[in-house]
Structure formats: C-alpha cells, structure tokens
Amino acid sequence: MSSSSGKKERLYKVLVVGELGAGKTSIIKRYVHQFFSQHYRATIGVDFALKVLRWDPDTVVRLQLWDIAGQERFGSMTRVYYKEAVGAFVVFDVTRSATLEAVPKWKADLDAKVALPDGRPIPTVLLANKSDQPKEGIAANREKMNEFCQQQGFSAWFETSAKDNINIDESANFLVSKILEMDKWSQEPLAPDPDKVELTANGKHKGAAPSNCAC
Ligand code: GTP
Ligand code: MG
Fold it and tell me: Which stretches does DSSP call E strand in 86-147?
C-alpha cells in the first residue's frame, strides 16, 4: 500500500506459537505495551495485538501479531489461524527443556500449514525466552542451539526475556527485515535483467534464498 505522499505502508501478519506458558503473551505485551506481569493467565484460542513501526523515513510497518494459545497444538484451528501469515516466532522456555523438545512439532506444523504466496516457507525466528532464569538442557549450550536452529530451518534464534526486556525489539526487527526482504523479492518483476534476477528455464526465480540461519 502506498499513500499519496509516496510513503509506503505495509501490513504483515505474524504468528507467535510455542508451548503453554513459554511466554508468548508476555513477549507481545512487552513489545507492544512495554508491560510485564508475573501473573499467568493461559491464552484461550488466539489473541491479537498491533505494533506500528516507523521502519525508515518512507516506510511504516504494521505488524498484526497473532498470539496463539499453547494448547492449540492439539487443536484443529491452527490451519485457520496460520492463513496468510508472512512470518512467525516459535517461543520456548529455557527453564523447561520439554518446551524446546516441542519446537520441531511447532515448526513442522507451521511448514505444513502456511507458506509464502510463491511456496517458500515463511521466515521464522526461534525465541529462547526467560533467559533471566537458569537454563535447562541444550538451551545453555550456544553451539548446540546454533546447530538446532540450522537443522530446523529457523532464520535465527535469540535469547529473550520479556521480564527484563532483553532482545525483544532486536528479534522483532530481525524478523521484519526478513519479511521485507521476502516481500521485495516477490514484488520484483520477472524481468530478464541479468543484474537483478537470475531466471530458471521456466521463468521462475532461481534458488529463492533457502532459509539461511543467522545463528
Ligand atoms: P499460553 O497462553 O498458555 O500458551 O502461555 P504463554 O506462552 O502466552 O505464556 P505467558 O506469556 O502467559 O507466560 C507464562 C508465565 O511465564 C507467566 O507467569 C509470565 O509472567 C512468565 N514469563 C513470561 N516471560 C518471562 C520471562 O522472560 N522471564 C520470566 N522470569 N518469566 C516470564
Ligand atoms: Mg498466552
């Protein structure tokens, strides 16, 4: 969407998934409302939040955040919730390794049910939340986490704390930059300009950037 002043506005749907109590709602509350509470109230179904970012002097990005209840992993609604999303966070709790063990299931659920319009997986960032607390299992091992992140096809992973406001803006900015990259790519005309795009024989973009792990 472009306004008459030449400024661009983008609206992106971003999913936030992960096990019960991993901190999805807390991360969103911190990011959007600069607020944190110790009090746990499980999300039922899905909640929404909107974050408006002045990305650069010409671009306003509106992030529509879909806060999906951890209990939905066993439900049948995720297919409906995931529709038309262009990015995602998978959140786990560093103090409970079972929440990390469930990450591949969440990632597989995303990959099975949502993709970019050209079929590529949506950029997804892994958040190791509650990093203000002592870590359990491989969450404490950076190298293993890098490996896990790469194997699972995440764009990157960040240690976050909704409580202490660690890496919340940074991880969101990273995901937005990935989304913008993908969006730019999809808007490129399929022009036969060798300096701009490489074409395959059937006229499609060649090797549309495999998920490369920034970890
Ligand atoms: P569901 O809605 O059930 O899927 O859970 P959720 O992932 O939305 O978790 P929620 O944000 O409700 O947080 C669960 C509990 O963890 C709450 O008591 C939060 O206060 C606590 N919590 C969340 N983030 C952090 C954090 O970064 N550090 C600490 N110490 N506690 C956190
Ligand atoms: Mg919640």
Answer: 87-93, 124-129
| pLDDT tens digits, 98-115 | 999 999 999 999 999 999
- Residue 54, H or E segment: strand 46-56
From ligand 2's centre to the CA of 20, what distance in Å?
A: 7
CA 207 – CA 94 distance, rounded (Å): 35
Of the candidates 6, 154, 1, the residue with the CA atom closest to the CA atom of residue 91: 154
pTM for the whole structure: 0.88
Does ligand 1 come within 6 angstroms of the Cβ of 21? yes
d(CA 120, CA 122): 6
Residue nearest to atom 24 of ligand 1 (CA): 23
Measured from the Cα of 166, ligand 1's closest atom is 27
Token readout for 50 is: 């909107």
